[in-house]
TrEMBL record:
PANTHER family: OS02G0177800 PROTEIN, PROTEIN SAR DEFICIENT 1. GO terms for molecular function: calmodulin binding; DNA-binding transcription factor activity; sequence-specific DNA binding. GO terms for biological process: regulation of salicylic acid biosynthetic process. This is Calmodulin-binding protein. Keywords: Activator, DNA-binding, Nucleus, Transcription, Transcription regulation. Residues 129-194 form the Calmodulin binding protein central domain. GO terms for cellular component: nucleus. It comes from Gossypium harknessii. It comes from the Eukaryota. Residues 199-258 form the Calmodulin binding protein C-terminal domain. Belongs to the plant ACBP60 protein family. Residues 2-116 form the Calmodulin binding protein-like N-terminal domain. It is found in: Nucleus. InterPro entries: Calmod_bind_C, Calmod_bind_M, Calmodulin_bind_N, CBP60.
Length: 345
């Protein structure tokens, strides 16, 4: 607005005129009420070498009846590179005067300008399955860990978790000694907070059907017409089942995808829970997964209002050589591989 500073009233100038919008150094003091044109010009900021002009958009405003509207301007750089670390926006009459009348320049208060580059590199809490793997803690975008994982076709958080489940030793080897155990544990812990969703995957063969969750954890299996659940996995050759999981992992792109509760899941889990409740990853009555060494089972603790998942503890044995033992568990224990609540002997 064009105003008379003696009474702060809008001045209705007889004809329209142009005003340039510029960037000023935040150090320009407002104490000097009667600065000169030359002093104002000295504080106008220019872009850094090789950069775009500091302001983009409609930088020339037409003032009519004492009012001009700034509708579309944006900064192209942050203010961290100057001593004050702040900018001001200034306005001056184009050409320095209008019809021979000196109109003093205007300026805003000093302010910090930030950019969005930090947003582009932020980690996600929690991550999603489709997030790029560098969204995980301790893995920097385009850094050495990111490149090593990409060279092994581990591009997403889902890829990371699938390999962790099926072959965590290989995953650890890919990242190498440059990733300390503390960093490794932090990365795995962050990955395990991933939102799983409700998709499941079916791996079929002539005499088998294996149901997996999105990170290749075993849910159930049907082999030669028999349904195998967490309660009777010991009745089947463990090595055979592990091999099926590895084959499913190797052929992941060809697996049949199931979303939500389906007849397929119902068939493979029939009789596995009281009242025939259906399992869903992330909010299930239980889940089971298998690696080359371990099987783990979980059951929801009805006493926990926040629906946390707590472990099942087995303490029994079988004559066929399978030994089920009870172990204490703590969520802060070693995270380098899935914990075992069932040992085999």
């Amino acid at each position: 607005m064009l105003v008379d500073t003696r009474g702060n009233q809008t001045v209705l100038f007889p004809s329209p005129f142009k005003v340039d919008i510029v960037v000023l150094d935040g150090d320009f003091s407002l104490d000097g009420k009667n600065w000169s044109n030359e002093e104002f010009d000295r504080y106008i900021m220019k872009e850094r070498t090789g950069k775009r002009p500091l302001l983009a958009g409609e930088l020339v405003v037409t003032v009519r009846d004492g009012v001009g509207l700034i509708e579309n301007i944006e900064f192209t750089d942050n203010s961290s590179w100057i001593r004050s670390r702040k900018f001001r926006i200034g306005a001056r009459v184009a050409g320095g005067s209008c019809q021979g009348i000196r109109i003093r320049e205007a300026m805003t208060e000093a302010f910090v300008v930030k950019d969005h580059r930090g947003e582009l590199y932020k980690k996600h809490h929690p991550p999603t399955l489709g997030d790029e793997v560098w969204r995980l803690e301790k893995i920097g975008k385009d850094g050495v860990f990111h490149k090593r994982l990409a060279s092994e076709e581990v591009h997403t958080v889902q890829d990371f978790l699938k390999m962790w489940v099926v072959d965590h030793a290989k995953l650890r080897t890919i990242l190498g000694p440059a990733m300390s155990e503390k960093m490794w544990n932090g990365t795995v812990k962050h990955a395990k907070t991933c939102v799983m969703g409700n998709k499941h995957y079916v791996f079929r063969g002539p005499d088998y059907k294996v149901l997996l969750n999105p990170i290749c954890q075993l849910v159930n299996a049907e082999i030669n017409g028999s349904i195998y659940t967490t309660h009777n996995l010991s009745d089947i050759n463990r090595a055979y089942l592990e091999n099926l999981v590895r084959k499913a992992y190797a052929n992941w792109c060809s697996l049949e995808e199931i979303e939500g509760i389906s007849d397929e899941i119902g068939l493979l889990t029939q009789g596995d829970h009281p009242n025939h409740q259906q399992p869903m990853v992330g909010s299930s009555q239980y889940k089971v997964y298998m690696t080359d060494r371990l099987i783990e089972g979980y059951i929801q603790d009805e006493m926990q209002a926040n629906r946390e998942i707590s472990p099942i503890y087995f303490n029994t044995s079988r004559e066929n050589g399978v030994r089920l033992n009870m172990f204490p568990s703590n969520s802060d224990d070693d995270l380098t591989s899935p914990k075992s609540f069932i040992t085999w002997g």
